Backbone:
């Protein structure tokens, strides 16, 4: 291989590394995502509702805990009447942006009655949810169930992957450019 071919190869490799690094995004703790619910069961509870989640620390490789969840359905705030909310059973998959697990808790209903709930989230084969509302104040107590699908979108721009590839690519471009300028590659 000629010196010129070698220099061109170094510059191309550096540029490709820089482009590949900028195209990759990394999910980080504290990042927010928006969940959009579509309801398929007959009750219209969460159809068109949106939730904002905030990621907690990494729970296992590629999976984050969820540190905050707020749900708005039209003009109704479904998390405003919460008494308790347990998010420890939910994991966020950084590769697919899907959720799995259960959000549980208690809230006061419109008439002030006590309710408990379980929001079950699954990611395969299609992201789906099931919301079970337990009316604890009724005589006798009863439950109603809603279900549907969801999709996740980034609430803010993803953070580009930092680190070694960026520095390596910049180094290759600088090396190739330096050799080129000294006319060893002409």
Residues:
């Amino acid at each position: 291989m000629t010196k010129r071919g070698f220099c061109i190869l170094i510059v191309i490799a550096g540029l490709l590394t820089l482009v590949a690094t900028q195209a990759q995004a990394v999910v980080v703790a504290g990042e927010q995502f928006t969940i959009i619910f579509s309801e398929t069961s007959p009750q219209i509870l969460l159809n068109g509702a949106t939730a904002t989640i905030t990621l907690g620390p990494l729970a296992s490789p590629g999976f984050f805990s969820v540190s905050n969840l707020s749900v708005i359905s039209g003009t109704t705030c479904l998390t405003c009447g919460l008494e308790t909310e347990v998010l420890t059973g939910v994991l966020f998959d950084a590769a697919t942006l899907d959720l799995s697990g259960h959000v549980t808790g208690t809230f006061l209903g419109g008439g002030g009655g006590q309710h408990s709930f379980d929001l079950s989230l699954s990611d395969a084969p299609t992201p789906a949810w099931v919301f079970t509302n337990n009316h604890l104040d009724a005589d006798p107590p009863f439950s109603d169930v809603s279900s549907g699908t969801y999709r996740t979108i980034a609430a803010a721009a993803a953070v580009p992957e930092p680190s070694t590839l960026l520095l390596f690519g910049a180094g290759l471009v600088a090396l190739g450019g330096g050799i080129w300028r000294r006319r060893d590659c002409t």
In short: Helices lie at 3-23, 164-181. The longest strand covers residues 142-154. Residues 3-24+161-181 form one domain. Residues 81 and 107 are 5 Å apart (CA to CA).
